[in-house]
Write a structure and sequence with these properties.
Blueprint: E1 3-7, H1 15-26, E2 33-37, H2 39-49, H3 53-65, H4 68-71, H5 76-84, H6 94-102, E3 118-125, E4 131-134, H7 142-149, E5 159-161, E6 164-168, H8 177-182, E7 187-193, H9 208-233, E8 238-244, H10 258-274, E9 280-283, H11 291-299
Length: 315
Amino acid sequence: MKRAFVLSGGGSLGAMQVGALRVLLENKIVPDLIVGCSVGALNGTFLAMAPTMAEMDRAAQVWRNVTTARVYPGAKMWVAWRFLSGQDSLYDNRSFYEFLQTNGCTPALTFGDLQGSKLYVTATHLRTGQLHVFGDDPHDRVLDALMASTALTPMHPPWEVNGERYVDGGTVTPLPLRVALDRGATEIYALHLHQPDAEPPAQRLHGVTAHINQTVSTMLRLQADHDLHLTETARRVRLHYLPLWTDDPIDPADFGHSTTLIEQGYAQAATLLQGGDQLTLVDGGPLAIGWWQNWRARMFPAADPQAPQQSLDSP
């Protein structure tokens, strides 16, 4: 068995993954490989350094120390100037670059130096639009990979590596299950920062921001669904799906609620693991009905009383 953890992007909500990772380690569930996108890449790096509770404690402390101003520095007038003057992004990324170095990710650190699980970090090649995976080459620098994977347009500028520019990995897929599949994973724990039972807007949208948010949300959902479908149709792969979300009105760009989010991520993951096989979506081959219907019927039976109650271990 080759076990993989796949950690999605999700901005400040990534603190929830730290809580969920603690639950997995407490239950002696340790990965052989880790695939991280955007903020999931940051969390995955801690685990790749050492899959221990002590490292998760350090990750939690880093999250408590980060501030919105460190990730998105500058007053509104400065942001407006960057936009009007044709800069590549609304915010400079030098402060975030320094923050990562302060917390142990030096420019000299390579993927080959990591002593824990094998780490892969996804980014999007800006010129071609193709998914790029850092970590196949042990000489890839971890700091470059993290800066590329978190370069969310238009917030941060593209990150240049060896003359090529990269942006946030979520541009191609926010939940890169395909990377774990391509590298031989036979069991996957997917920590997805996603609201699984989100309803579409009840009223007509108004304003540019609302339309952009809805469009981006739809794009990301469909891209994640594509990777989940790839896993559903794969043979001899067991997928455990852990959607992590908060009902609190916390903006993914607001990094001032890490302690609360870590606690919520821990509680949600613990509840999901207590469900045993109810957590498993795919086991040995595709289900006769969509995994999302099966999972929703088992986890929320009252929400869909007409859904077929097929066994999760059915071929």
